[in-house]
């Protein structure tokens, strides 16, 4: 049995996460406890549930209610994950749901999910695999679509974890998790405060035994397939913002500066595309 609540309007206070809160308000909705985020589509919701995130509620289109709940229940049973019996499931006709910004881009259900407390950087690093870990650092990557694409590539190409500076876009923004196809719930990740990162971040990585590879264009760059990179036992790949790239101090303090060879006349790739190539090459253990 499911706790179904059929709607004629969006006036109920419990619907605020869907109709009133923006991304920042969701993030701070339960302070001092971790906030909320919205997961879109049954596939993304299922991956969040499988990873242990608890739903506060669901909002489902009446026409596809049976299909979406069947998909979620089946995945929950297959993965021995807690079901949805006690979760409020709000049901509305499409005409009402079309009042929600962006609903026409979606495929069915929405879920308001509880965030979890992300581990501090030192705890996160200590929990990584002992043998040849490969991690990514996202420094001031502000486009949610790029964040989502990077997470999807990292999950697919052997990256063990991701560290996101606090001046980057939130991986749980709706657009980010949608582009990532829910892989933001599969790969371990945490935040690092931006000020901490820019002052002592690389030092903390070095203390944990990592060498750092900054993706940037400089006179002393080495190619991404340089054999010495594959000899590094613990490697952190640092990717920068879409426009200005990495901070000069980040590059100065990194052990390597690496580049993807380009055809003449082109100097760089979008950060998401560059990450996929870097993860493919450097995520392999040799």
From TrEMBL:
Gene Ontology MF term list: RNA binding; RNA methyltransferase activity
Matching InterPro entries: Alpha/beta_knot_MTases, Ribosomal_eL30-like_sf, rRNA_Methyltransferase, SpoU_MeTrfase, tRNA_m1G_MTases_N
Keywords for this protein: Methyltransferase, Transferase
Domain tRNA/rRNA methyltransferase SpoU type as annotated: residue spans: 135-279
Presence of the UniProt keyword Methyltransferase in the record: yes
Keyword Methyltransferase listed: yes
Gene Ontology BP terms: methylation; RNA processing
Family annotation (SUPFAM superfamilies): alpha/beta knot (SSF75217), L30e-like (SSF55315)
Superkingdom assignment: Bacteria
Annotated protein name in UniProt: TrmH family RNA methyltransferase
């Amino acid at each position: 049995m499911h706790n179904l609540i059929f709607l004629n309007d969006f006036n109920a206070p419990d619907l605020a996460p869907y109709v009133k809160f923006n991304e920042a308000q969701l993030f701070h909705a339960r302070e001092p406890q971790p906030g909320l985020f919205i997961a879109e589509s049954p596939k993304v919701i299922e991956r969040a549930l499988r990873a242990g995130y608890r739903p506060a509620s669901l909002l489902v289109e009446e026409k596809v209610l049976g299909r979406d709940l069947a998909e979620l229940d089946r995945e929950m049973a297959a993965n021995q994950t807690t079901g949805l019996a006690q979760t409020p499931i709000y049901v509305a006709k499409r005409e009402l749901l079309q009042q929600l910004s962006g609903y026409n881009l979606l495929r069915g259900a929405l879920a308001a999910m509880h965030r979890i407390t992300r581990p501090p950087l030192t705890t996160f690093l200590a929990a990584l695999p002992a043998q040849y870990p490969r991690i990514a650092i996202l420094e001031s990557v502000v486009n949610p679509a790029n964040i989502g694409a990077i997470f999807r590539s990292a999950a697919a190409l052997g990256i063990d974890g991701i560290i996101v500076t606090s001046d980057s876009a939130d991986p749980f923004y709706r657009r980010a998790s949608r582009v990532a196809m829910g892989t933001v719930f599969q790969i371990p990740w945490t935040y690092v405060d931006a000020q901490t990162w820019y002052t002592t971040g690389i030092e903390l990585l070095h203390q944990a035994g990592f060498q750092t590879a900054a993706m940037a264009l400089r006179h002393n760059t080495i190619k991404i397939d340089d054999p010495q990179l594959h000899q590094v036992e613990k490697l952190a790949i640092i990717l920068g913002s879409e426009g200005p790239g990495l901070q000069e101090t980040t590059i100065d303090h990194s052990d390597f500066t690496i580049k993807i060879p380009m055809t003449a006349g082109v100097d760089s790739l979008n950060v998401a595309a560059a990450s996929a190539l870097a993860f493919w090459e450097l995520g392999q253990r040799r």
